[in-house]
Amino acid sequence: MRRSLLSANVKVDDAERIEDSVLLPNVRVGAGAALRRVVVDKYCRIPPGLTVGFDAESDRKRFHVTGRGVTLITPEMLGQVLHVHP
Asked: Strand, helix or coil at 77?
């Protein structure tokens, strides 16, 4: 892990690499995942082996990539549904 900020209650299961990234609260990163220049929204479950931030063209197909090359990942982009209680 290099130059990254992990918020409260973030769990990383032997990730390959996390670099120049921000992980918001309650994120889980699966084993073998590699993240570079990403912002991961709260409650995301990053699947094992997912690679994001190394191929902007590929990332744009699934995630939002800013003009400066930072990739945003939300639960919805991963096909995950958050249950919100009123």
From this structure: helix
Q: What angle do CA 8, 75, 10 make, to 5 degrees?
A: 20
For 5-19, write each residue's pLDDT tens digit.
Answer: 999 999 999 989 999
pTM of structure: 0.91
pLDDT tens track for 13-52:
998 999 999 999 999 999 999 999 999 999 999 999 999 9
Contact 81, 75 (CB under 8 A): yes
Q: Give CA–CA dist 11/66, Å, rounded.
A: 26
Number of neighbours of residue 28 by Cβ within 10 angstroms: 17
C-alpha dihedral sign at 78, 39, 29, 42: negative
